[in-house]
């Protein structure tokens, strides 16, 4: 029975393109439904959508961004958000310098 279960999980995992252990964790209840794993995201869903729209508009007019440029933009946004959280919005000069 155990071997049949492992073979079934392996085939299903391959079918859906996911690691067998991930599927096994979900089947056996190790991971709760709706739970997310990994590091927290730097951008909210709406911020990410805004960034995508900006990148698409930039590319459409001939100013496509490289991966490094996108990473720099995201790190500046994260630094700005961190400054707002830490300083409570009082020290916006320092935050603005890192954002621009």
Helix coverage percent:
55-70%
Q: How many distinct domains? A: 2
Provide the succession of SSEs.
HHHHH
Radius of gyration (Å): 21 Å
First CA to last CA: what distance?
60 Å
Q: Biggest sheet, in brief?
A: none
The parts where pLDDT drops under 50 for at least 5 residues are none
Mean pLDDT: 80
Number of helices: 5
Coarse structural class? mainly alpha
Oligomeric state of the chains in view: single chain
User: Which geometry do the CA atoms define?
Assistant: elongated
Estimated share of beta-strand residues: under 5%
β-strand number: 0
Polypeptide structure, described:
With 100 residues, the protein is an all-alpha fold. The chain has two domains: 1-35, no CATH class; 45-99, no CATH class. It is 68% helix and 0% strand. The chain contains five helices and no strands. It has helices spanning 2-16, 20-27, 45-60, 67-87, 92-99. The longest helix is centred in the C-terminal third of the chain and has 21 residues, at 67-87. The protein is elongated. The termini are far apart. The model has no long low-confidence stretch (mean pLDDT 80).
Describe the secondary structure blueprint for this structure:
Layout: H1 2-16, H2 20-27, H3 45-60, H4 67-87, H5 92-99
Keywords:
100 residues; 2 domains; 5 helices; 68% helix; 0% strand; elongated
Quick structural overview:
The chain is mainly α and 100 residues long. The protein contains 5 helices and no strands. It is elongated, with a radius of gyration of 21 Å.
